[in-house]
Amino acid sequence: MYFLERGFEWSKKQLSYEEATEEYKARIRQQGQAELHTPADVREPVSNNPSNNCSLYEHNDFYIDLRTPSDEKRGLITFFFLILGGMLAWAGMATIWFAVSDFMATDRGTSWEFYIFGLTFAPLTANIALYFFLKFSIKFFRLESLTARRIIVRFNRITRKVYLLRPKHLGGIRIMDWDKTEILIDKKMSELEGTGGFVILVWDKGDGVDLQGTPTDNIEVTFIGKPTRNASELLAFWEYIRRYMEDGPAAAPAPKKLICKFPWPWLSLKAAWGLDTSFFRQSELRVFVLLNLLLWPVILIHATGHWLSLLLCYEPRFPKVIEEAGR
Fold first, then answer.
1. Whether residues 83 and 35 fall in one domain
2. Does 48 fall in a domain?
3. CA 273, CA 244: separation in Å to the nearest integer?
């Protein structure tokens, strides 16, 4: 989880603004063409069939809240961290308990081997192993636990701002100008190129501010939406956002069902399984159903870790000044 955001924040620390700008320009070029066919600005339509892509947390007359692409990619680190950490912790406590129990026994001898190995060496070894395990693995554990449960991107049509709700280590809260948004998608991509795609929005230096009103001093990037199945879905999703901001809620109506934020365990199972119901309706794709059933033990491990990861995180909330913006 947060791999995209963490990678971008890491790259910003390694590059100056000028270097980051050059890298961004290089990324929007492909072999065989001068540059991507990106929309000219936020006012340019890209699809005739807008779709919310099942990516909305909230929809009202003031704003929409959207998810980011990597929400399902969490849990395995948490699961194995807790299993291995629990085993080492149990070993550390067990060695101490057995040593003390032996020492308190009336029929126990007090040879020097017992003091060295029973009371000192074994407990010390187990607890040193636990210490180094925690020291070197906690930073990976915090990629998906003991942090914000999710990143939320808010589009406020009244203030014409895009609000990025992120943990501090991923850039923190930013308030970006909608009208200065650059959209990193290719209007003429093939259907295959849109597989697993998501919307990427970019802002130049000074196109937004932090919560204290200080202008941004580098490029800002955010990634939006559930990964799509093809280019049509990807373009339709961006068109949904664009119409909401430019034309209003009537042009981009609320979905029948919003994403639930409460960490129900069956939602984690659904995220880990990730099986598209269209597979059942197309005989040539039903082999993927069989493959998923064969991988059921792995899916259960992933789902368990996913749920534990959610329980070990806090639900992020926008500050009051952003919640009341435009009302």
1. no
2. yes
3. 31
CA distances from 212 to 109, 174, 200, 204 (A): 68, 10, 25, 19
- Please list, in sequence order, all residues whose beta carbon lies within 8 angstroms of the beta carbon of residue 155, skipping any fewer than 6 positions away: 63, 64, 66, 162, 178, 241, 244, 245
Same domain for 256 and 200: yes
Contact 44, 32 (CB under 8 A): no
pLDDT of 105 strictly over 60? yes
Could you say which of 261, 287, 319 is where a domain stops? Answer: 261
Distance CA 20, CA 12 (A): 7
Asked if 58 and 153 sit in the same domain, the reply is yes
CA atoms within 13 A on the CB side of 207: 20
Query: Residues 274-302: pLDDT tens digits?
Result: 754 445 555 555 666 677 677 788 889 99
Range of the domain at 253: 3-72+146-261
**Cβ count near 191 (within 10 Å):** 12
Residues 6+ apart with CB under 8 A from 26: none
> Which tokens is 60 given?
């009202």
Q: What share of the chain is helix, strand, coil (3-state, %, to 5)?
A: 45, 15, 40
For 180-220, the pLDDT digits (tens) are 999 988 888 888 888 888 999 999 999 999 999 999 988 99
Does the pTM of the predicted model rise above 0.90?
Answer: no
- Largest interatomic CA distance in the chain: 86
pLDDT tens, residue by residue, 300-327: 999 999 999 999 999 999 999 999 988 8
- Strands (E) located in 63-211: 63-66, 152-156, 161-165, 174-177, 182-183, 199-203, 208-210
| Residue 306: other Cβ atoms inside 10 A | 28
Please determine, for residue 108, whether its predicted confidence score (pLDDT) is greater than 70: no
Between the alpha carbon of residue 164 and those of residues 42, 60, 147, 211, the distances in Å are 18, 18, 16, 10
Q: Would you say 305 and 72 are in contact if contact means Cβ atoms under 8 Å apart?
A: no
**Rounded distance between C-alpha atoms, residue 79 and residue 85, angstroms:** 10
As a whole number, mean pLDDT of residues 77-81 equals 92
Model pLDDT, residue 18: 78
**Within-domain flag for 275:** no
